[in-house]
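#onboarding

Welcome to the new folks! Below is a worked example of what a typical request in this channel looks like: someone posts a single protein sequence, and someone else replies with the predicted structure as tokens. Don't worry about understanding the tokens yet, we'll cover that in week two.

Example request:
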Amino acid sequence: MKLAACAAALVATLTATPVSADNFQSSGLVGERDVRDFLSAELDLVNGKGEKSSEAREHLERIRRDISTMYTSLPKNAEGKLNHQVVRYALHRFFTRRHGWFIRGLEPNNDTWHGETDPLNPDSHNSSAMKEWVPSFLQDALEQRLGKDGTDLSQLAALASALEDLIQKETRDRVTTAYGMYEFPTHKLLSQAEVDPMILTYFVMVLNSGDFSATNPIEAVTNTQEFVREYTGWNTSKAWLDELKAKHLVAKNERYDFESINRFANKIQEEYYTLNEFECKDLKVTLRNVQGMKPGRVRLSTFYNKGMYSHWDFSEKKEYLRSIGVLDESDTEHPSVIIANYAMARPNCLDSSNLFTICCLNECEEMMGKLESLVGESMASPAQIVKLVALMPSATVEADRKLSQSLVDRLDSIAAQHNGQVPLHGRLFAQWMHHVYPLECPFPHEVSGLTQGEWMQETGSESHKASPEELKDIIASDACAVNWDDPSKPVKCADETTAELPWSDNEELLVRPRALEEESPAVEEAPRRGVVAPLTALLACILAAGGLYLAVTKRSSEVAWKPIGSLTVAGLVLYACGLVDGTLLFLVFAVGLTVAATNRMTTPTNSKAHLSKADMWEAKECV
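Example response:
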């Protein structure tokens, strides 16, 4: 998080090495062939094929079990499967809940296809594109192989497992890089004295977002020690690493092989969120202690004021805060920072991988997971939700409480838009959960998903941070009294008279529920036509047969009826299949009959046998 960023500039200088240096950022990049191969292997396991170990099969089955409850509650398409966007939503939630991983390209409002490839190596991707393209390419590969009728539970598990396979490949390549820095062959069995410095270097790489390089063991040790001296909170991080080593780094005859070290490196990535939560909780408590009358919010002036007297650097520009979806501007003169949104925002994430970033856990996931398990459907009645939510505690909300009438009314208003049911995975319900748990559930703001550097490049700003003068001006412009000695007392601002949170009636759904489609006006006509449709189809078939008979029997005597007969057959068949409506069919026949009548009036009544060849062609041209 931000503490790691404090040392980043120093380490960037320390690790400025020649191009030939081993560098973690450039190792572990995956290509399209890797994606296809891992997905194919996981799908083979789903189908009972393949040559993977029993451990791989058990891993896939664990993922299937872990994701099954959420899968059951998600909205399905007509085939009972998940559509494209719901799959992305499910995978995003699965990895954030499981490891605190925000998979790049799966963030909300992001459906990025892969970027430009290297013309010299079409199977590779540049570093910025790498951070986005993998999930979309993986999902597209699945749809190309199995069709686009949706994704079932086993296929969803295969996608999740394939993503983990790709992340493990990146980790394995980075462990190989660490071996290279310390000039160890990967087949060598290492002693404790050899392993400890190398693992410390690998851990420093994780803390510094992969930005670490060295040309030899001496340089690797030196750069590692420089980082350790400057990193705030190193003692806590080192204690966490030592505890993890005691649990998961296993020696054989007091020696460590490559596979044991690789497994431990994977554990660092999988469990890092537990260390990250120490800082996340400190961040949330810091902001919670200066929230105003509106729960879950800190006035922007107070936010900046706190940043001047805290180890947290609260100095992001208002425009940048808006772009990452953490700003409440319902009061246009005095905007506020939404605590839950800010805690999970990109500035507080650790970019330890090319494939994912580690962010603060979404505390709302715990409540949503319980709801999905208890409801077992994608929609529920307001009464059922009120009963269940009232019993659910959080870090700041007690269990067994009575929800306010305004919260119940809001829920009823959502159900009124959806035939008496509340979609659990829509924007309005997410907004309602934010009102119920303002410090745990984020407000459903639209976010850009841009990193600080990308935002600066897009806006032309030199920095994403406000200048000291800008901060002082905003602080001075707002009359808020902060009791720094007693955090239990809320910040008092002169013009703040209500604790009511903003509410928007805009709804966004992952998919339109089938129950609602049956009630929509466009589909309401279907039952009324349901009895008529078979009769119309039968009549159309009879007329089509009659038209075909006339076209055949009159083919030698009536030139004009040849195309009219064909038109009759084609038009009625199309109408019976529902491809054209009655009005269009009438116009087609009207035009056809007009042409036929005109042709009859301009063609002699004697038989075709008495017509000259020129007359025949003239008649045909008239048609």
